[in-house]
């Protein structure tokens, strides 16, 4: 890499092809200049001597040129070796990414691609472990209840209690799987301005509220959507819907019975702000620092609703891909929570 690095410092050799051409140019013309100088200043020139000198200069320059050109291949070889090491051993390299020519861009792309693949692989392992754990627990609970049914199944009252428990476990597990599928689907959404469109925040939130009618009624919650009908967000339809789905779902999940949830929106010169406020369990500063981390075990909902450990992490990622921000606020445990979504206009 030393030869490549030194040539990269030369102002007129910014492109990788220029470096190759420059070395080849010198390799051709240095022996030619040597021959001309010898012919000009030598007092006597024999044909044999001239041929030998010409041959020697040409071979020497060719060997030196090939050596330098081979050294210029070092960054390409380094990139190839990095890919091989990752494929064989999952080794993440530390390639130089400060160069600006074609090979420098290639090294940057290799480094970024390997880091992204490593991140995806780690996330896949995390998800497998999470699902394995959260599927195993209710199965064990179900097996335990079945054992109780075998022992006390003749008692109608106990049998009904066990059936109710089995129904609750199955319902929670279905909800967990539905949440995981939504999250995994949102994770693979391509979010870029080319896919953005104008969206009605009020309509999206109303549709989400309707979809949670059963859980809202079960907790006897009041949800007030004060987002102006004319307020529009420019964003990815599925991504923005998933953001509000996760936040409204969390507000319902962590609200106490007979509680209220207030949703409002406003437009400033630079951005759209949507606030979702609940009066549920809230959080302290210590919990706040872990809210957006992956797979950090969270509280169960106030009715025992399961959490995936992924929802807020991915919600924040989606908002950030829109160039926005997601800010959490709470005065402490038991005081409710407020989440503010800010999206550029």
Automatic annotation (TrEMBL):
Keywords: ATP-binding, Cell membrane, Kinase, Membrane, Nucleotide-binding, Phosphoprotein, Transferase, Transmembrane, Transmembrane helix, Two-component regulatory system. Residues 130-345 form the Histidine kinase domain. It is a multi-pass membrane protein. It is found in: Cell membrane. Its EC number is 2.7.13.3. It catalyses: ATP + protein L-histidine = ADP + protein N-phospho-L-histidine. It is an enzyme of class 2 (transferase). CDD domains: HATPase, HisKA. The chain crosses the membrane at residues 20-41, 47-69. Its main location: membrane. One of its GO terms (molecular function) is ATP binding. GO terms for cellular component: plasma membrane. This is histidine kinase. It comes from Bizionia algoritergicola.
């Amino acid at each position: 890499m030393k030869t490549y690095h030194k040539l990269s410092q030369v102002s007129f050799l910014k492109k990788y092809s220029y470096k190759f051409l420059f070395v080849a140019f010198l390799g051709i013309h240095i022996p030619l200049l040597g021959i001309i100088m010898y012919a000009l200043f030598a007092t006597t020139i024999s044909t044999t001597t001239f041929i030998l000198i010409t041959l020697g200069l040409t071979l020497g320059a060719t060997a030196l040129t090939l050596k330098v050109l081979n050294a210029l291949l070092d960054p390409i070889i380094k990139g190839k070796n990095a890919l091989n090491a990752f494929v064989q051993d999952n080794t993440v390299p530390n390639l130089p990414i400060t160069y600006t020519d074609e090979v420098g861009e290639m090294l940057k792309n290799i480094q970024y691609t390997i880091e992204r693949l490593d991140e995806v692989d780690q996330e896949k392992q995390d998800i497998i472990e999470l699902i394995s754990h959260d599927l195993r627990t209710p199965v064990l609970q179900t097996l335990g209840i079945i054992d109780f049914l075998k022992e006390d199944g003749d008692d109608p009252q106990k049998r009904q209690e066990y059936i109710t428990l089995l129904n609750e476990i199955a319902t929670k597990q279905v909800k967990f799987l539905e949440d995981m599928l939504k999250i995994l689907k949102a994770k693979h959404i391509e979010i870029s301005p080319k896919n953005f469109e104008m969206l009605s925040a009020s309509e999206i939130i109303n549709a989400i509220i309707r979809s949670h009618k059963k859980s809202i009624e079960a907790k006897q919650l009041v949800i007030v959507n004060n987002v102006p009908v004319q307020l529009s967000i420019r964003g990815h339809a599925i991504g923005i819907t998933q953001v509000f789905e996760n936040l409204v779902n969390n507000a319902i999940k962590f609200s106490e019975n007979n509680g209220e949830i207030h949703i409002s929106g406003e437009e400033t010169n630079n951005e759209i702000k949507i606030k979702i406020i609940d009066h549920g369990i809230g959080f302290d500063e210590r919990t706040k620092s872990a809210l957006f981390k992956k797979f950090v075990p969270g509280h169960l909902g106030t009715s025992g609703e399961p959490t995936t450990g992924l929802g807020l992490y991915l919600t924040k990622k989606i908002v950030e891909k829109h160039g926005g921000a997601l800010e959490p606020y709470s005065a402490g445990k038991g005081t409710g929570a407020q989440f503010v979504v800010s999206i550029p206009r």
